[in-house]
Amino acid sequence: MTAKKVKINRAPVLTLWAAVVAERLGYDHEAALTLGKGVAGLNAQAKGRRLGIFEESKEEDRPSKTRKPGEQFMATVLGRPVPATNTDQGIRATIKGKAIDPASVSRYLEDKFGPDLAEVQAAMETLANAYPPDQLATQAYPLYEKFRPDIPEGKKGWGAKGELDLDYIRSLAK
Fold this sequence. Notes:
There is one protein chain. The protein is of the alpha+beta class. The chain has one domain. It is built from 6 helices and 6 strands. The two termini are 16 Å apart.
């Protein structure tokens, strides 16, 4: 395999990594995709508020952990509690109480990574599989911080692209 670097911003990288981690932790593929999108969305909101791009929300919705059909609970991925619900199709992360469509997350990742998606996902899966699930649950975000693309600090970095080094991701699995 040749040395590969992908020019991309952090949001799709975090989305894909969180989905890979969620699947390694036992969620089915479609649930994992929605949880990945949920993690990335919550991180983007937090960063946007910190940078003054978004206003602080007045009230945070804190769903209970009850897992009755249609009721929401929190699923923790990359150390971040993500609002989720049980649907007829399985567990789905939610945004403002509405289930995220896994097909829309797949399209988003395909659009952002293009032809590099399969290779990036394979590198991330190699890394995730190098850890037992309980250890991965605590190490997933620190691992992301090691391999995520470098971008400028502050508002200059908002939406900026950096290099994602697949060899480096694979090396973290050793």
